Amino acid sequence: MQKAIAEFIGTFTLVLFGCGAAVIAGPSIAGAGTVGVLGIAFSFGLAIVAMAYAIGPISGCHVNPAVSLGALIAGRMNVSDFITYVIAQVAGAIVGALVLFIIMQGKASGWTGGMGTNGWGSGYLGEYNVISAFIFEVVATFIFLVVILGVTHKLVPHHFAGLAIGLTLVMIHIVGINVTGVSVNPARSLGPALFAGGAALSQLWLFIVAPFIGAALAGFVYKAGILYNGDAA
Length: 233
What we know:
CATH topology: Glycerol uptake facilitator protein
Number of strands: 0
Shape: globular
Structural class: mainly alpha
């Protein structure tokens, strides 16, 4: 139960403050005061850093079904815990998006219903096509999981693991925001999409399938001992 609560809180925080930066401090709302791509990237990354040190000792701070899948395949968690984690992560993402939605409804003007959702194609940020979006999400999630599984390996000092993981997420967002808005996390995509509807929901499949593929590949790399032999948490 403690692990589930920790994962709920962690994913809630990631969605509320990561997507919140895009919605509340983004150009469509803040205008000239926008935090821009760099600010949004750091908001997601810093949310992970904060939660890594807050709940990491309890649950490992996955806050991402793709991370949990990679850990499962790498042999770092069992199926029962995986299911518990995913349920808690999805619930946290939905509640985080709900809180953001309620906050935005209190704005007098300027909000058009955006929720910091992921997407691709005509009218979405850099207007990249579905192939570009799919490739980016697979590769970015793979790299993200390689870092996570690497810095949390038993042979590696863990003191700065949270910082390394958070900064990796910042790096991924700096490059990928204009491609897909950056998911690498099915729960992060699902929560806001439920409240935005439309294209965000119809395109949601990519932000579930691609991150899972990238995470699974990273998990297999570690399970096979390609990077580390005798891998363990």
